[in-house]
């Protein structure tokens, strides 16, 4: 999905701040907080937010004075993050992944260990293909998120999960790292989820996948780097 919108440098930074702040606090982000961070007046921030909202990057939920990102806003942010090739996970996270997949024994257990580590590090649902099966861990993390407190939303997420394995086999995403945000998901479009998966070469298939499923509100920069590292760590462990 290509976004042709041109934002000013301040609008880029403002959208980035809204995405990252909303991921952290799970509450709409107001102009006063951003004004302090940017060192400008609240009126200036509000004017910029009006432009971002007019162009579909953020929205005002209900009657809240704050704003949250839209799927388009998340996509714009993710595209910029993916273009920045310096997004590497921290040493502690890399060590944790490598330690859990090294000397794990059978390939199946190695992959499960990598998924379980992603669950611990990202607090999302972790998943991976193991042969003809889809291994999942961390359902409690997913359904514990505030976005999924109503029954209808939970049903949409369950529908997505039920159809995820056959979709992966059919679609076989080719990029090393794939990010599907909200309505970009070919299944469960209204589930309010983002799927972040890394392709890796495994003993079961050259088109094996590991990744996470979480709400659209999440720390994309960190999660994307962790998922990418998980794929690399698995390839190294499985073929060492």
Keywords:
240 residues, alpha+beta, five-stranded antiparallel sheet, two-stranded antiparallel ribbon, 9 helices, 51% helix, globular
What gap, in angstroms, lies between the N and C termini?
Answer: 36 Å
Shape: globular
Proportion in β-strands: 15-25%
Number of helices: 9
Structural class: alpha+beta
Share of helix, binned: 40-55%
Give a written overview of the molecule.
The protein is an alpha+beta fold and 240 residues long. It has nine helices and seven strands, in the order H-H-H-E-E-H-H-H-E-E-H-H-E-E-E-H. It has helices at 9-25, 31-38, 42-54, 71-83, 91-101, 107-122, 139-143, 151-171, 220-238; strands at 58-59, 68-69, 125-130, 133-137, 177-181, 193-200, 208-215. The strands form two sheets. Strands 4-3-7-6-5 form a five-stranded antiparallel beta sheet, with helices on both faces. Strands 1-2 form a two-stranded antiparallel sheet. A hairpin with an 8-residue loop joins strand 1 and strand 2. Helix 1 packs across helix 3. The longest helix has 21 residues, at 151-171. It starts with 8 loop residues before the first helix and ends with a helix.
